[in-house]
Amino acid sequence: SWGVVDFGPYFTSYSFNALEGNRFKLSARTNTKFDKHFGLEAYTAYGSSDRNFKYGAKANYYFKRIPRSLLSAGYREDVEQFGLNAGIFKEDNIITSLLRRSQIRSYNKIREVNLVFEKDWFNGFGNKFQFKRKELIPVGDLVYDAENTLGQLVNISKITTSEFSVHTRFAYGERFVGGNFQRISLGTQYPIVDVHFYWAIKDFLASDYAYKKLVVSVKDKIKLGILGTFQYKVEGGKIWGNVPYPILELHPGNETFLLNENTFNTMNYFEFVSDEYASAAVTQHFEGLLFNKIPVLRKLNWREVVSGKALVGNLSNSNRAILEIPNQIYTLRYPYYEVSAGIENIFQVFRVDALWRLSYLDHPNITKFGV
């Protein structure tokens, strides 16, 4: 912190990847000494291999913090990897760089304008209204090729979308902790329902495609007494309209050694694509049901945990034909499964899982078993 400006997070100051090489990043934001309602944040980054600067800036105005009401506007120009769900650690975090199990060179250069109005109408119910104009420019090993009327492949230099979206969240009794400008959910004892609706208009601000997309998810944690806690999340999504694979659902994979509950941890990045899908993830936290019966493990206070994830999906022929789909991207002909078993509460901080992939074992460069 330096006066009215805070710097960080420091873990993103340096990272590395196959496209950018060494990535150096400086991030800063104003704090409440600058203004209690208005905040600015910005970053710039530079890659030693691609020799390009990246940058982004955002302005936030908080009308009210409890219940939350804010307006934000931002712009960024950066590179982004397909099929990525950041979870706790972002792609440009040094920990992610160190624990990455493969080097990916399929990136998009992103130019994005983002306008957001977020409103909690009362505790546990809120909306986020958003407009996003985005340009996707393939870089690295990624190319966009389309087939013309003569059956020849023609290179597409970029894809542009102009998208409106509404996110509705119902989480009765949800609690938060945080500072003046950021907050972290502490969850709730009731189910959490999220509904996302997206609407893109062709030719609006040079948008290439028109489509609608709906994603609905439900998650909850259920106390089971001496059996521990059962946790689940189910999600379904569908896209209407003819759009190419970069705009469809590229199911989130994980090619690091960091467990991410929001991804399929034995699935590669951009391995599967769908225009309609359903997924389920379940976790059973036994909370010492077995380990408490073993004196040494009871003293360590370790806890057993098992989980499983499944995914089904489909891709229509009309969407399949718009762009040439790379060889490493597949459709879901039958369900995808993975399971894990592990130990949590190690030193009251860590969790270690052994993971098994149970389907699509013939795909190249996959992880059938991992820790």
Could you explain the architecture of this structure?
The protein is mainly β and 371 residues long. The relative contact order is 0.10. The strands form 4 sheets. It has a 17-stranded antiparallel β-sheet that branches. A two-stranded antiparallel sheet has the order 9-10. Strand 21 and strand 22 form a beta hairpin.
Characteristic key phrases:
371 residues, mainly beta, 4% helix
Summarize the structure in short.
With about 375 residues, this protein is mostly beta strands. Helices cover about 5% and strands about 50% of the residues. The two termini are about 40 Å apart.
Quaternary structure type: single chain
The amount of helix comes to under 10%
Radius of gyration: 22 Å
Kindly report the average pLDDT value. Answer: 92
Following the backbone from N to C, one meets helices and strands in this order, namely: EEEEEEHEEEEEEEEEEEEEHEHEEE
Annotation field: number of helices: 3
Judged by helices, strands and strand pairing, the structural class is: mainly beta
Our estimate of the beta-strand percent is over 45%
| Outline | globular
Query: How many β strands by DSSP?
Result: 23
Largest sheet, if any? 17 strands, antiparallel
Cα separation of the termini: 38 Å
Low-confidence stretches: none
